[in-house]
């Protein structure tokens, strides 16, 4: 292939976005392929918000571009932007099931990072009520269902507060879930459920606690 002479500084050191970042963010798969074929293109070059090409491809829902970028093992799938978000946290927040599955296909993906809002992957899926994504995450042994967010609430309390009964049920089906942890504010999920009058959730938690005592 005959390369058009390009100033390397313009490829990798723009203060806003690199060509690869723009191509990835706009879903231009063929342009992404061309740029990735160059040895002098930095695949994880970030903008002033520390967002990489992979981040923008996920943010804008370009599955084919994400698949292409993730095929390169020298791309970091866990890159953090200046708000603590990762490509995975973005995909979970936006409810992008296919994107989440693509990212989880990487063996080096990190599920228990406390990123945006101080939430882990499971906390995010719980908070936004994305049940299909939560089911996918709960099937992963490396996803901690008890990891508390920065405010001291675990996934179960995040589901109990707003009365997300189906989400509570999903969480309690994990064998290693603590059904009634005492959290940083001194409350337990069972106490929260009682105070908010979530009778179905109270019954679910009490049933799980009872099963553990047998």
What is the gist of this entry?
This is Ankyrin. The protein is mainly α.
How would you describe what is shown here?
With 214 residues, the protein is mostly helical. The chain folds into two domains: 1-87, Serine Threonine Protein Phosphatase 5, Tetratricopeptide repeat (Alpha Horseshoe); 111-214, Ankyrin repeat-containing domain (Serine Threonine Protein Phosphatase 5, Tetratricopeptide repeat), CATH 1.25.40.20. Helix content is 48%, strand content 0%. Helix 4 runs parallel beside helix 6 (87-93). The longest helix has 15 residues, at 199-213. Residues 1-8 have low confidence and may be disordered.
List the helices and strands and how they pair.
Elements lengths: L7 H5 L6 H7 L3 H8 L16 H7 L3 H8 L16 H7 L3 H8 L16 H8 L2 H8 L16 H6 L4 H8 L16 H8 L2 H15 L1
Helix pairs in contact: 2-3, 2-4, 3-5, 4-5, 4-6, 5-7, 6-7, 6-8, 8-9, 9-11, 11-13, 12-13
Organism: Choiromyces venosus 120613-1
Keywords: ANK repeat, Repeat
InterPro entries: Ankyrin_rpt, Ankyrin_rpt-contain_sf
């Amino acid at each position: 292939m005959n390369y058009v002479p390009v100033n390397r500084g313009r490829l990798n050191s723009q203060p806003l976005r690199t060509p690869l970042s723009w191509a990835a963010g706009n879903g231009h798969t063929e342009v992404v392929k061309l740029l990735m074929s160059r040895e002098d293109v930095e695949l994880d070059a970030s903008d002033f918000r520390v967002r990489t090409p992979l981040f923008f491809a996920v943010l804008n829902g370009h599955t084919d571009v994400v698949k292409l970028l993730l095929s390169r093992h020298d791309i970091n799938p866990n890159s953090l932007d200046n708000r603590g978000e990762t490509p995975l946290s973005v995909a979970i927040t936006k409810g992008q099931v296919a994107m989440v599955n693509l990212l989880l296909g990487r063996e080096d993906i990190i599920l228990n990072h406390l990123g945006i809002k101080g939430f882990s992957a499971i906390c995010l899926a719980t908070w936004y009520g994305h049940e299909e994504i939560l089911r996918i995450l709960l099937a992963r042994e490396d996803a901690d269902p008890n990891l508390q967010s920065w405010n001291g609430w675990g996934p179960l309390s995040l589901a109990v507060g707003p009365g997300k009964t189906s989400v509570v049920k999903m969480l309690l089906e994990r064998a290693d879930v603590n059904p009634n942890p005492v959290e940083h504010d001194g409350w337990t999920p069972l106490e929260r459920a009682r105070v908010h009058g979530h009778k179905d959730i109270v019954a679910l938690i009490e049933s799980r606690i009872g099963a553990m005592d047998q």
